[in-house]
């Protein structure tokens, strides 16, 4: 196998005022919190959004491991819908000291390039900043961060920066090149 150079950027916001909202995506787009943790639905979103951009870290998780990931206090999944069809999602993962990571964010391939991503990211960041209002046992959010890499979609980094995220760390490594897994085995 050949190797590739993989660059990973970590970006952050340290104030809600850092957010530069995107324009709404249109009246046919809604963003709704998936309030009942569902490993099957979350795995569908993960595999469907990340299948063509090398998301593989959760593919081997058992159902019990998915439940463990999703059932922690403050973990939230916000889903963008286009007239009732899932178009993408953002998963928020609260950490210690008022930090919230945007653990996963993206759109299913057929919904990319339609101005949904900026709107979904805006909603996700707003929900990260007000997470403690829904989870009173959590500290108020002081920092929101995300990471992206050179294998993510071609507009991912620009979307994060347009919303107001600033790079705080860059890492580069050589990695074995692997095929994308697709949304399901053999796809």
Automatic annotation (TrEMBL):
Domain annotation N-acetyltransferase: ranges: 39-187
Lineage top rank: taxon: Bacteria
Membrane-spanning residues: none
SUPFAM superfamilies assigned to the protein according to its UniProt record, in alphabetical order: Acyl-CoA N-acyltransferases (Nat) (SSF55729)
The protein's name: GNAT family N-acetyltransferase
Provenance organism: Streptomyces amritsarensis
InterPro entries: Acyl_CoA_acyltransferase, GNAT_dom
Pfam family, one: Acetyltransf_1
